[in-house]
Here is the input.
Amino acid sequence: MSIDVFISEDQIQKRIKELGEEISRDYKGEEVIVVGVLNGSFMFCADLVRVLKFPVITEFMAAASYGEGTTTSGDVKILLDIKTDIEGKHVLFIEDIVDTGHTFKKILAMIEKRNPKSVRIASLLSKPARREHHIDIDYLAFEIEDKFVIGYGLDLGGKYRELPYIGVYNPEAN
Ligand code: 5GP
Here is the structure.
């Protein structure tokens, strides 16, 4: 097997700096609760909050969808919820990848009942070809075609999250 580099560490870090500038401009002077969606966003979240030019409250949620292998089912469960009261507050979600949109459909339905002032999404990746629910991504690092990627937080059976780049797993190569 081999892992082909799809988006390099340099490309990721450069794009995160650009997103950080944009997000910092948009939220200037506001209080923002940043919510990293575990597990896949842990690295993107850690890098993104470090380039923001305003103080944030950082929280985490965990969502899991039960599907087969590398596909997502609509059965999304919230495994960890945030502790901060978000009523009247700006909430910025940080996600690894928006694929079918099932995960965010579930998260947004739950969060909107808590009456936040605003809800935005920053996602490292988006695969629009796979979308089943429309999701507005406010800050997107990279749009990709329909391929299964690993690294930089994204896993295959819990492995490869530690890679500093985004790669494509090739089980056939030797
Ligand atoms: P959605 O609910 O939008 O279909 O999927 C969201 C979740 O599915 C992501 O947070 C991620 O954990 C997983 N996922 C979707 N596409 C990929 C992919 O290409 N690689 C990996 N490793 N996970 C993916």
Observations:
- The two ends are 5 Å apart (CA to CA).
- The chain is about 20% helix and 35% strand.
- The pocket of guanosine-5'-monophosphate is lined by residues 40, 65, 72, 96-103, 148-150, 154-156 (CB under 6 Å).
- The chain has a mean pLDDT of 94.
